[in-house]
UniProtKB/TrEMBL annotation:
It comes from Durio zibethinus. Gene3D superfamilies: B-lactam Antibiotic, Isopenicillin N Synthase, Chain (2.60.120.330). Residues 195-295 form the Fe2OG dioxygenase domain. It holds the Pfam family 2OG-FeII_Oxy. The lineage of its organism: Eukaryota, Viridiplantae, Streptophyta, Embryophyta, Tracheophyta. This is Protein DMR6-LIKE OXYGENASE 2-like.
Length: 346
């Protein structure tokens, strides 16, 4: 297996190899790319944790609207130090800068291997390879980390603890916005338990000589309840909103958060997971770091009874979180195709 980074650094690349050319990047998704970015919902995290009930009530409403209308929002004034964010980016870059043979020790084939490093999404079934190298680490309930670079493990553990805390507070606000008890989602999904699942995913998108022909990640939705994302200074994330692709250019020191498929299942479709993609550029390497937050792997996620109205009915089958991850990994990334397997006719 060769990483895209090795391909780019070989010095002989003037065009995209045919196996990386996607036949349907923009032309077949029938969606317009917005050239002037729309303002995206922004959540002031400090208000969400404020002791002032009026401030908290206001931001809970804003959070609910963001989940309802976008499935995506930006978080500012959070409690993750900038120094920690910067160190996490640097350590991630250092990992991808390791020699190929050092990274290949983590090229496991199994979905639940503690650490997996690879390229594309699932090269065994991908119709075209993606312009992306990745590192995936299961960091909770059991913490894992690569042994190189030397400072990676300590920074990773601290960073993931902070993002778990952020996810917990956001889920409290989301519960309230649904008219439920503040603790509802955290308790029902055991998010604050020692068994909850957190996956760290770092993506490297090297410069691409013909970015219009390839893709970092195709349109897809995420598993889990929430994904918390940060990136280096380069833009590349695009979110589907009202049938249009919206390029995202976050504020400095902010996080981007999107709702996942299991939020859609749990809320019986009220808060839908958002479809998004990663495009590449021909100038510089983009790094993105996401943490996916979900329940324990053996938890069956199904619509909350409180959100299944009599005149609507249950819209999704329940499924073990573990089984959903296996389903997603067995297929090519294609919009919300995995979630479609669980939809009920109502």
């Amino acid at each position: 297996m060769f990483f895209v980074k090795e391909l780019v650094e070989s010095g002989c690349l003037t065009s995209v190899p045919s196996k990386y050319i996607l036949k349907n990047t923009d032309s077949d998704d029938h969606c317009i790319l917005v050239k002037e970015p729309e303002p995206i919902p922004t959540i002031d995290f400090s208000l969400l944790t404020s002791p002032d009930p009026h401030q908290r009530s206001k931001i809970v409403t804003e959070l609910g609207n963001a989940c309802l209308e976008w499935g995506f929002f930006m978080v500012i004034n959070h409690e993750v130090p900038k120094t920690l964010r910067d160190e996490m980016i640097r350590e991630t870059e250092s990992f991808f800068d390791l020699r190929g043979e050092e990274k290949r020790q983590y090229t496991g084939k199994k979905l639940f291997d503690p650490i997996r490093c690879g390229t594309s999404f699932n090269p065994m079934v991908d119709k075209a390879l993606l312009w992306r190298d990745y590192l995936k680490v299961h960091v909770h309930p059991h913490f894992n980390a690569p042994n190189k670079p030397s400072g990676f493990s300590k920074i990773l553990q601290e960073y993931c603890k902070k993002t778990r805390e952020m996810a917990s507070e956001l889920l409290k606000g989301i519960s309230e916005s649904l008219g439920l008890e503040q603790s509802y989602i955290n308790e029902k999904m055991a998010v604050e338990s020692s068994y909850s699942h957190q996956l760290f995913v770092a993506n490297m998108y090297p410069p691409c000589p013909q970015p219009e022909l390839s893709m970092g990640l195709p349109p897809h939705s995420d598993h889990g309840l929430l994904t918390i994302l940060m990136q280096n200074e380069l833009v590349g994330l695009q979110v589907m909103h009202n049938g249009k692709w919206i390029p995202i250019n976050p504020l400095p020191n902010s996080f981007l958060v999107n709702t996942g498929d299991h939020m859609e299942i749990l809320t019986n479709g009220k808060y839908k997971s958002v479809v998004h993609r990663a495009v590449v550029n021909n100038k510089a390497t983009r790094i993105s770091i996401g943490t996916a937050h979900g329940p324990p792997l053996d938890t069956v996620v199904s619509p909350a009874p409180e959100l299944v109205a009599d005149h609507v009915g249950q819209a999704y089958l329940g499924i073990k979180y573990r089984e959903y991850l296996e389903l997603q990994q067995s297929k090519t990334l294609n919009g919300k195709s995995c979630l479609d397997h669980l939809r009920l006719s109502i």
